[in-house]
Specification:
mainly alpha; Spc1/SPCS1; Signal peptidase complex subunit 1; membrane; single chain
Length: 97
């Protein structure tokens, strides 16, 4: 049960969305933690704010939320090879002439 929950399906649009969100959230966390650390004059508070922002980013971007699979890809059916071994020697020989 855990493996099916962890597998998750994300389409290509969802991958782009999570990539964009993760970069924006990490950038925002970096700026916010720097400002807060500078204001409080504390490196530990800066690291705490950054860690909280990083944890929020992981919670938003890592699970396969249903919103990340709104554009599923429909794959074409497989084409069967004419030769049993899967080689295309006949086509190559005809092209060499």
């Amino acid at each position: 049960m855990l493996s099916t929950w962890m597998e998750g399906k994300i389409d290509f649009e969802g991958q782009k969305l999570t990539e964009d969100w993760s970069q924006q959230l990490i950038a925002f966390s970096t700026v916010a933690s720097f400002v807060y650390g500078y204001w409080t004059e504390s490196i530990s508070s800066m690291l705490l704010v950054y860690a909280i922002g990083y944890a929020i980013t992981i919670l938003i971007c890592t699970p396969a939320w249903p919103a990340y699979n709104k554009h599923p890809v429909t794959w074409l059916p497989a084409i069967e090879d004419e030769n049993e071994d899967g080689s295309d020697d006949g086509d190559r020989a005809a092209k060499d002439d």
